[in-house]
């Protein structure tokens, strides 16, 4: 059985796996300004624009002055939504559903990021609103509900113009298109142009479930007219007021659209949706071998139904091979019903090995005229292969009623795709009690709810409690009394179509084959555990939709590779895909699926600097895992943060970084709850000594680099404390990082910030050997770091630290922080796609130093966040230090940090004296790691600036742009932000 990603980091760590079409886009150039931005849901952040952005983008004065964070906006929207629920209680169901759709649609039109956050966080509640069943009601009333266009509209009047029209769409790249002609919207019939609500809802599910980039989706309405007289007479109707095109006129319109789409976006996947049966099958056969396309009504519905049918076999306690023996009555000979029959017959033929002709024996097709047999005149060509021989079942003839068929056949499964509400009446359901199965399945799969063949309550009431029930629309579980529950399985296409599209996209498949669809269905069928199956549960909870989609996508991708249909995508070619094992494929699919939310972990975060960092990250819209050794204190802090307006943004997990079991538990928690990690701040640490004179300590540390202090009178130290310090500060951070790196690899922008200390600078270590190891950038390894620490602890235990060149006081702290700095450089080399840095945030006022520090925790947190939010081309492997008089960045530049010809760096300040630039060797050297130390007055603002070119280029810019008045380099394009 396919399961969640195993995070095979060891196999992928050195492979270039850059995110592409589905990945969160990096910072992009915004060409709009002012009100244009506020009217663009792709860029609009409402009141979330900080003042600096309001100035840059011409928004100051166009918004209320208060800046409302993303989390606050989310909480505000959810409060409005819950108020709507409360205020509409007792009103008709349709009225309530439309009111909910309206409030969501308004958000969608205003702020897409917030909209998808709300949708993903509340998928179980919102899916029935933006998708089935409410979307059917929306389509019926769409012309009256219309406020703002979404998607593209191609009509019969546009013939000959589509090739140019397609370039009117503003997105440069489109990956997923959902297309409808509005001819058969759900079970509601011809709704013309109003059917656009279906592609919009489907693509919202692609974004929410598959993580498709919302800027790369396109809903399309192909308006060829309507035969719905009511719409033609409606003065508000937005579509063409003409009868539908037919024959060659119709197909020429579809041909022109397909050619236009694949001229501009040759790799785009087109999903056909809600076409009337004759055109559904015609277009599927016409295009499926030429383009990457599929029909969700025929193939998606069939896949979900097949998964349910296979689950029903398991629910009977029988092996899947017995599926070939199941008698199945299918009610509905439309595109969905025939699609299910085709896929089910293929599955039976494969399992039995007897061919498709024999596989059809146990399937019975019923349409509006009754049982379909070969005696029927003018039989539909698509239904003809499933017509029964007259007299195949004694007493059943052409046109036999559903009740007659059920009584004679005694089917194991009764499956409805008729679009006729209530067709499974009380008599039919009671007849299912005589099924040849001890646990028969009743699947009423038609949408919307009013078109369901029966309700869940009626099914359990009349067919008996020992049934398996599935439906296309949502129903509540049925209380059977005595503590028993009749489980309702929503057999919704959303379980499959997002995974089919995602797998096809990431594989670069030329076409979507039957094998890929079968793989998707079988993957879904295997997702449920045997324990749940025995309870009558066939499908997983919608809450798990992202995990389900990832596994389905992986199964589709693997099938594409097996059938040699995969052409790869971007840097990941077909050979790389072929060499991946199942676990790597799942990981590959997961990591290339957009997760719109960002997650951070901060260790040692129940107070001080760690807590300040948590507050800042949460206020910036991240979900933050606050960790601490003391569970009680940690929970109390999270509770206080929740009351301060950060409810839901901060969660607690107990963590002692010196305890490997705690670390493993944290990694499993993040994997299960979030599926990835974006930022890790290693902040947990201890002093490694016992302060015996607090007042003397405060006096001695009034300067960050105290001199002439008799530390023996202030603190005591021993081997045990030093060993604990090294194992906490260095090995604890190292183990935590190693455990979380597989989750960070799933992020579009992984960041690691190691909180260090100015005491970690090498000049505090007398040992030339140790300094030589730590400063040898080219040969530095984890093993070499371990060698230094092992030797230090050995010498400490033997009482020879001073004679062997180790620091006299707090040596454990100094060595552990120096090791963290060195480890940062090693990690940066090992993971070049990460941004990994360490910093000394200053002498922070915390409990660790008895609040003797002179830097508020908020200032320190701001420096941590600068490194946590570095751009993707920012520095990596650097040690940032603030000394007592000057703000100094010590930048370790070496080939593993980044390519020197590609980037340079520098520092500027507003006013003050000219910077001194130089290195340990007094010159810049491209061939080995170098250190550039730039000293600036601390009373002014400083920023790191990155610019294309070589380091020398930047120094030349400084020469040209620095004078006694300070920096004046804006004219050369060097940004201050």
Automatic annotation (TrEMBL):
Catalysed reactions, semicolon-separated: (S)-malate + NAD(+) = pyruvate + CO2 + NADH
Single annotated GO MF: NAD binding
Keywords, alphabetical: Metal-binding, Mitochondrion, NAD, NADP, Oxidoreductase, Transit peptide
Start and end residues of each Malic enzyme N-terminal domain: 108-288
UniProt domain Malic enzyme NAD-binding: residue ranges: 298-561
Cofactors demanded by this protein: Mg(2+); Mn(2+)
Record localization: Mitochondrion
Any single Gene Ontology cellular-component annotation: mitochondrion
SUPFAM superfamilies per the UniProt record, alphabetical: Aminoacid dehydrogenase-like, N-terminal domain, NAD(P)-binding Rossmann-fold domains
GO biological process: malate metabolic process
Record-linked Pfam families: adh_short, malic, Malic_M
Family: Belongs to the malic enzymes family.
Physiological role: Involved in the regulation of sugars and amino acids metabolisms during the night period.
Name of protein: Malic enzyme
Species: Pyrus ussuriensis x Pyrus communis
